[in-house]
Each structure stands twice: as C-alpha cells, then as structure tokens.
Amino acid sequence: MSDITKCYGADCPMKDSCKRFTAPADELHQSYFLDPPYHINEGGFSCDMYWGANAEGIWNMLQEAVGIHIPNFNDMDHDARGDHNL
Predict the structure, then answer these.
(1) Whole-angstrom distance between the N-terminal and C-terminal Cα of the chain?
(2) Are the C-beta atoms of residues 24 and 1 closer than 8 Å to each other?
C-alpha cells in the first residue's frame, strides 16, 4: 500500500518516473487526485505534486537539517498504525 495520494497519470509525460503513478495502490483504501495536478501549455510542463527519484532524498535531508524525524507509515508497528486482526 502507498500512503500517498496517487495520480492516474492520464497524458502526463512524467508519469513513468513519478512515484504518485508508479507506487502500488491499496485495493481498498487508496486516495487519488480528482483532477490531474499537472499542467501542459506552450511554456512546457509543470506539476507541483511530482514525486521523482530525488524527492525522498530531499525530504530526508530536510528532516535531518531541522532535527526532526517523521516516521514512514510503513515503518510503524501494527499497533501504532491501528492494524489489528479482528
């Protein structure tokens, strides 16, 4: 499961290198953008939500620089996430 808002990709030229398109989806509880977050115009392509290969590295550097750590949802134990076998 990807604990991110995913993108359907549609006609996006960057979808194959974007984690929001390539990450595996949860079959039951996955959120998606309602409208594509990218724009294609005469000036080129832009997307404020693009998550390329360097995005996670940049996030990690930011956390280190400000001295905080926000755990990845998948790294939490099941009790902290609320995953309980009922």
Answers:
(1) 19
(2) yes
The percent helix, strand, coil of the chain (3-state, each to 5) is: 30, 10, 60
- Sign of the four-CA dihedral 55, 8, 33, 24: negative
CA angle, residues 57, 62, 64, in degrees to nearest 5? 95
Token pair in block for residue 8: 């359907």
How far apart CA 52 and CA 48 sit, in angstroms, is 11
Question: For residue range 27-62, what is the model confidence (pLDDT) as tens digits?
Answer: 889 999 999 899 888 878 888 888 887 776 667 777
SS3 72: coil
Q: Where are the alpha helices (DSSP H) in the chain?
A: 19-22, 55-66, 78-81
